[in-house]
Structure formats: structure tokens, C-alpha cells
Design a protein that fits this description.
267 residues; alpha/beta; TIM Barrel; 8-stranded parallel barrel; globular
């Protein structure tokens, strides 16, 4: 069983092998995804929305991510484990960013960290990577900037935005990042970025010409029937399945069908 590492992912790009990535927030899901063969497991700050029930990711703390990353690490044998750096854990200074990244590695057992931002994050990325910590970049729709963007909007449609994103991708690569998430940008721009840098790109809402794809596991499994963005393909309908299973449990308990003698201990 080959352990997936940051250098391994870069080799996958060179060979033209697509990278698969999914989020996880606990050991059980991590174990299932790892056994299924996904290459990258991200403990995303999306946990603020899908686990904590918040409207945005902005309230997630570094301690939250450390806790969930440590749990996820217990379920992984093969996949590459990446931890998100939450809002205000790296924006103050490169020194603060290095300290936060170090905690995610040392206390959370992450193997790499991910942070959002473009050209303006190059110095921060350089600071973290100089300490031997792999960094995954993230540009396009960066959820921690949702208020700046005025909502969850596609980025890079106009010439100025597209130029900024292309320059950012190159700056992030030059700063030492080993991979780059491209979120919610037009596929022609994602293709151009992917072809212009040597590190792998991992898309979400960025078309098929990136080096890999990532989705939130709860979204892929169809656990929220109200969440249906254009980029999302639901591979299951667990919302219905879970609702039906729980409904059957409630019915059998109330009708004294469960537990029966097969699910009870004799004296």
C-alpha cells in the first residue's frame, strides 16, 4: 500500500493521473474514504457549515480544526491528510501563520496545511514551507472572503480577475506550495492555470481540465436535499435513506417490534 505524500501528488500530475480528494471530519468517514482509495482527505473549515450548522466558515477556530484533524488521522493509513487553516489563523503575519501551521502538524497530525488567498499570500506560504511544512494553496472563490465577494460567486470571469488568478497561481507555486485548489472559476481559465504551473491543481466548480477534483463528502452523498449548486454531482441520496431508516426505527420502537428476542440478552 503506497502512502500518498505531497511529492507523490506532484508525480501524479507529471504522469497525467487524476487526483481525487474529499473532505472528512471524523475517523469513521476517514477510514471509509481511505479504504475506497481517495488520494487526499481534507479536514476543511467547511466543518463550520456541515458539522456546526453555521452560515459560513468564518467562525471556525484553529482548535476546531486541530480536534477534527486528529480524529480523522486515526482513520487514515494511505491517504494524504490536509488540514485547513481557518479564518484569522494566518492573516495577521507570516509568523502567526507558521505557528498555526505548526500546531496543525504537531497537535492535529496533519501532513500538510491549506490556506486561501493569491499573490498576497506568497510571503506567508514561503514562511511556512521554509519550516518544512507542505502548503496547498486555494484561489478563486475563497469562502473566507465571502463578505468581500458579496456571496458565493464565480470568480475570474472578467479580464482583471482572470489575470489576478493566473498571477496568483504562479506566485503560489514560486513560494513553494505543492498543490493548488481552484474553486468556482470558468473552466477555460482553470485549464490555462493548470497548464501554466508545474504543481497539481485540484478543482471544485472549475471544470474537468484540472489535475484533480475535490468535493465535500456530505454533498457528494446527498445529505442536504436543499444544497444543489451547479458544480455538485450527488452520487447518493443519503438524506432520503437516513430519514427512512430513522422513521422505521421510530415506528418499531413505538409498536414494540424492536428490540425483539434476537436483539435482547437472556437472563
Amino acid at each position: 500500500m503506497k502512502k500518498i505524500t505531497a511529492p507523490y501528488l506532484k508525480e501524479m500530475k507529471k504522469k497525467g493521473e487524476k487526483i481525487t480528494a474529499l473532505t472528512a471530519y471524523d475517523a469513521t468517514f476517514a477510514r471509509i474514504l481511505d479504504e475506497a482509495g481517495v488520494e487526499v482527505i481534507l479536514v476543511g473549515d467547511s466543518l463550520g457549515m456541515v458539522i456546526q450548522g453555521r452560515e459560513t466558515t468564518l467562525q471556525v477556530t484553529l482548535e476546531d480544526v486541530i480536534y477534527h484533524t486528529r480524529a480523522v488521522s486515526r482513520g487514515i493509513k494511505r491517504a494524504h491528510l490536509v488540514a485547513d487553516m481557518p479564518f484569522m489563523s494566518y492573516q495577521i503575519s507570516p509568523e502567526q501563520a507558521l505557528e498555526s501551521a505548526g500546531r496543525l502538524i504537531k497537535e492535529g497530525f496533519a501532513e500538510a496545511v491549506k490556506l486561501e488567498g493569491g499573490v498576497e499570500r506568497a510571503e506567508t506560504i514561503r514562511k511556512i514551507t521554509s519550516a518544512g511544512i507542505p502548503v496547498m494553496g486555494h484561489i478563486g472563490l475563497t469562502p473566507q472572503s465571502v463578505h468581500k465577494f458579496g456571496g458565493y460567486r464565480v470568480q475570474g470571469r472578467d479580464e482583471e480577475q482572470a489575470r489576478y488568478l493566473l498571477e496568483s497561481a504562479k506566485a503560489i507555486e514560486e513560494a513553494g506550495a505543492y498543490a493548488l485548489v481552484l474553486e468556482s472559476i470558468p473552466w477555460p481559465l482553470a485549464k490555462k492555470i493548470t497548464e501554466s504551473i508545474s504543481i497539481p491543481t485540484i478543482g471544485i466548480g472549475a471544470g474537468k481540465y484540472t489535475d484533480g477534483q475535490i468535493l465535500v463528502i456530505y454533498d457528494l452523498l446527498g445529505m442536504d436535499k436543499e444544497f444543489n449548486p451547479r458544480f455538485l454531482k450527488k452520487y447518493a441520496d443519503l438524506h432520503t435513506l437516513i430519514t427512512e431508516a430513522v422513521g422505521m426505527y421510530i415506528k418499531e420502537v413505538k409498536e414494540e417490534i424492536f428490540p425483539d428476542e434476537n436483539h435482547s440478552f437472556e437472563g
